Amino acid sequence: MTRAGARLPLVRGIGPAALVVLITAALAEATLAGIRNVPFLHRRPLLLPLARELYFVDRATVQVLGDCARWDPSLGYTLKPGACTFANTEYRTTLRVNSVGIRDSEEALAAPEIVVLGDSFAMGWGVEGEQTFAAVLARASGARVLNAAVPSYGSVRELRMLSRVDRSRVRTLVWQFCNNDYIENDAYAKNGNRLPTLSREEWEGWVLKHERERRYVPGRYLLRAVGSRLAGLLPPAASDPTSSDPTDPAVRKNQIRYFLNALETSPVDLSPFRIVLFELNGRNLHADWFLPMLAEEIRSGSRSPVAARLVLVDVAGRLTDRDFYLLDDHLTPAGHRRVAEILLPHLGPATGAGAERTP
Predict the structure, then answer these.
(1) Are the C-beta atoms of residues 188 and 258 closer than 8 Å to each other?
(2) Separation between Cα atoms, residue 213 and residue 217, nearest integer Å
(3) Predicted pLDDT of residue 19
(4) Beta strands in the chain (DSSP E)
(5) Which end of the chain is less packed: N or C, by CB atoms within 10 Å?
(6) Which residues sit opposite 85 in a β-bridge?
(7) CA 166, 171, 301, 317: dihedral to nearest 10 degrees?
(8) Range of the domain at 42
(9) Angle between helix 155-162 and 181-190 (nearest 10)
(10) Do 36 and 174 lie in a common domain?
(11) Nearest partner of 146 among 132, 127, 126, 125, judged by Cα
(12) Does 189 lie in the same domain as 89?
């Protein structure tokens, strides 16, 4: 028998083997897609961690949706005035945005008494505008409340957004802190208290990249599931000194320092305002150290006069898993109501919402 003849059975065997592999991969992909998209499956406790992992492969991110956000030369982006639909697996909402680029009405811009600062949690990611804790606080307190939160903003840009709104009657800032503020606050401090921002081309590149990544390609979920598990078998990478890992003690110390630096270099004079500060992270992860460390810094004689006037409220410690979506890591409408309930007694007598009370 010639060499070519000896190879014929092997060649013939490749076709069926490849077909088996393709069918197996297709079935695996279909199963993973079901876990990702079908509530009956992703609500199962054993499947939920995998469903969450797959959900973030193609979750819509509002600040890089061309219909919902716009480039801004000094803030990188704001929300886009008008209305857009923002939807993911567990919710479908309408964002109504005023001329400043924040999720509130045009009327709310006129002489607010309370301004809410923060990122996606305060903006109301995944809930309707009237369901946000800002809206609930407005109804419960009778005060004029402006929701000036924008997704992914850190403390520096939140203060810059505050500089754009009418502060003539503001008495209270309700300020939501998130652990990922570290990234922006760190960059700002290390750049000589100048905020690096996106060019129009960079932001538009983000939008196009997000659009491509969300477009379904066969095998997407299988590649993610297999790739992440193979990565878990590799030796851990060397520690990155620029990491924002909240479990790193050095990062925690710098988080406090960079936040206070943002306060001290604020473009807005914060001295007239009562500042009610609280923390919200995705599903309450790493939410047990920032406020206690900040309180200790204040007690030990922080040089920041503004810091000494902060009213620190433990919101995260009073929330449960039921206040967050199953797949998404943001608050449900019930979670927003709970946040408003916790914050209401701390708004102060200036708004008619009760006497001062701090934890």
Answers:
(1) yes
(2) 9
(3) 85
(4) 69-72, 76-79, 82-88, 91-97, 114-117, 145-147, 172-177, 274-279, 310-312
(5) N
(6) 94
(7) -100
(8) 3-55
(9) 80
(10) no
(11) 132
(12) yes
Q: Are residues 17 and 144 in the same domain?
A: no
Q: DSSP states of 148-177 as a string?
A: ---TT--HHHHHHHHTTS--TT--EEEEEE
95 within 8 A of 83, measured Cβ to Cβ: yes
**Interval 198-217: pLDDT, tens:** 999 999 999 999 999 999 99
The model's pTM is: 0.90
Distance from the first to the final alpha carbon of the chain? 88
Residue 67 maps to a domain: no
Residue 138 maps to a domain: yes
Q: Tokens representing 47?
A: 């499947």
In a domain, 50, yes or no: yes
Q: What is the CA radius of gyration of the chain?
A: 24
What token pair was written down for 136? 């609930």
Q: Cα separation of 270 and 173, whole Å? A: 9
Q: Give per-residue pLDDT as tens, 302-349.
A: 677 888 889 999 999 999 999 999 999 999 999 999 999 999 999 976
**pLDDT per position as a tens digit, 9-59:** 545 556 788 888 889 999 999 999 999 999 999 999 999 999 999 999 999
Per-residue pLDDT for 154 more than 50? yes
Which of 114, 182, 120 has its CA nearest to residue 150?
120
Strands 274-279 and 91-97, sheet pairing: unpaired
Residue 94, domain CATH: 3.40.50.1110
Same domain, yes or no: 182 and 268 = yes
CB atoms within 10 A of CB 325: 21
User: What is the number of structural domains in the chain?
Assistant: 2
114-117 and 172-177 strand pairing? parallel
CA quadruple 287, 293, 299, 302: dihedral sign: negative
Answer yes or no: is 108 within a domain. Answer: yes
Of 19, 40, 55, which one is at a domain's C-terminal end?
55
- Residue 41: CB atoms within 10 A of its CB come to 17
